[in-house]
């Protein structure tokens, strides 16, 4: 199983860091570099300053945990998405721009690659994790809307990153595709699909509370 | 009828009753303001909520396997146009 994380910013760095326990090979794709303003919102250390984010993630996993990964210090575009995505058994979209999300989604649909998207609201209060089957990018409130770069939203970022890592783990180990909304009050499952080869069934909760947890829903 | 969920200011909760599923998105946003002001959403009671509090929110509609409907009113997750 090879997982390709596309975007290694706030969500991608935290989710990748929390997927280091998986029996999978991880790859990271990002063209950007680690800046000091990233240290409070992204899972990078001071030693990573100035490095490419994908390479910094690879080095941190190797040096701190002995986990090997690969890094691709490039921007995902229509011209390279096929070569980056071809080895992937799972694509994870943690990009910060709608153009890149469209490129990934188009590729995933054409190639039948599993793709899960993660995103954070501008106020840092809410996150959405949704498999490509249900994915429609939201429009911006204003053009060029800022994403979270300071440390103000770190707990929310970590919460959404952890939820994403859990969803990736659930897919790797059980073949489940879970969509969730992540708020301060809890995680709400909005769809659950058994995508394992044996069965493909939809499971959506018929009732739940705001604080419902992932294991509240049984897979029949 | 549909179960109606609102996520606002980090809190996500269901309306105590159900909502008519044929309502338009703008009607749902207006109803949401009223029910949050009135305390109809457990844990999400804001008496002085602004009229336009949900103007930029997204309405998601899902079918459940049991044949029911769910409506979610949630913040956007826009992620800019950088790059």
Rounded mean pLDDT score of chain A: 86
Uncertain segments of chain A of ≥5 residues (pLDDT<50)?
A: 200-220
In what range is the share of β-strand residues of chain B? 25-35%
Walk across the major sheet of chain B and give the strand order: 2-1-4-3
Average pLDDT of chain B works out at: 86
| Distance N to C terminus of chain A | 25 Å
- The count of DSSP E runs of length 2 or more, i.e. the number of strands of chain A, is 9
Describe the structure.
The complex is a heterodimer of chains A (220) and B (83). With 220 residues, chain A is an alpha/beta fold. In chain A, 28% of the residues lie in helices and 22% in strands. Chain A has 5 helices and 9 strands. A 9-stranded mixed sheet of chain A has the order 3-2-1-4-5-6-7-8-9, sandwiched between helices. Chain B is α+β, with helices and mostly antiparallel strands. Chain B contains 1 helix and 4 strands. The longest helix of chain B has 14 residues, at 25-38. Chain B starts with a strand and ends in a 9-residue tail after the last strand. The A-B interface holds A 31, 75, 95-101, 119-123, 125-128, 137-141, 143-147, 156, 181, 183-186, 188, 190-191, 201-210 and B 3, 5, 7, 9-14, 42-43, 56, 58, 60, 62-66, 68, 70, 72, 74-83.
How would you summarize this macromolecular structure in one to three sentences?
Chain A is of the alpha/beta class and 220 residues long.
Topology:
The complex is a heterodimer of chains A (220) and B (83).
Chain A lengths: L1 E5 L3 H9 L6 E5 L23 H13 L3 E4 L8 H5 L4 E4 L4 H14 L3 E6 L5 E6 L22 H21 L1 E8 L2 E9 L7 E2 L17
Parallel strand pairs in A: 1-2, 1-4, 2-3, 4-5
Antiparallel strand pairs in A: 5-6, 6-7, 7-8, 8-9
Chain B lengths: L1 E7 L2 E9 L5 H14 L19 E6 L5 E6 L9
Parallel strand pairs in B: 1-4
Antiparallel strand pairs in B: 1-2, 3-4
């Amino acid at each position: 199983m090879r997982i390709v994380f596309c975007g290694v910013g706030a969500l991608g760095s935290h989710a990748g860091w929390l997927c280091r326990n998986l029996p999978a090979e991880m790859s990271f794709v990002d063209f950007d570099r680690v800046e000091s303003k990233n240290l409070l919102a992204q899972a990078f250390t001071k030693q990573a300053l100035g490095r490419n984010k994908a390479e910094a993630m690879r080095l941190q996993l190797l040096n701190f945990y002995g986990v090997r990964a690969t890094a691709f210090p490039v921007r995902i575009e229509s011209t390279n998405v096929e070569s980056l995505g071809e080895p992937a058994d799972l694509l994870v979209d943690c990009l910060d721009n709608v153009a890149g999300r469209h490129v990934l989604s188009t590729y995933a649909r054409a190639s039948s690659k599993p793709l899960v998207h993660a995103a954070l609201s501008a106020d840092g209060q809410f996150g959405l994790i949704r498999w490509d089957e249900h994915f429609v990018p939201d429009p911006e409130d204003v053009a060029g809307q800022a994403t979270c770069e300071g440390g103000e939203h770190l707990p929310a970022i970590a919460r959404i990153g952890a939820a994403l890592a859990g969803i990736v783990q659930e897919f790797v180990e059980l073949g489940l595709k879970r969509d969730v909304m992540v708020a301060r009050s809890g995680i709400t499952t909005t769809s659950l699909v058994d995508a394992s080869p044996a069965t493909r069934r939809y499971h959506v909760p018929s009732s739940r509370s705001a604080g419902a947890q992932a294991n509240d829903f049984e897979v029949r | 009828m549909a179960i109606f969920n609102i996520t606002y200011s980090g809190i996500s909760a269901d309306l105590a009753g159900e909502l008519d599923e044929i309502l338009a998105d703008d009607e749902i946003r207006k109803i949401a303001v009223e029910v949050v002001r009135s305390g109809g959403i457990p844990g999400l009671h804001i008496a002085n909520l602004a009229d336009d509090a949900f103007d930029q929110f997204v309405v998601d509609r899902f079918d459940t396997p049991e044949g029911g409907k769910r409506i979610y009113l949630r913040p956007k997750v826009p992620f800019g146009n950088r790059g």
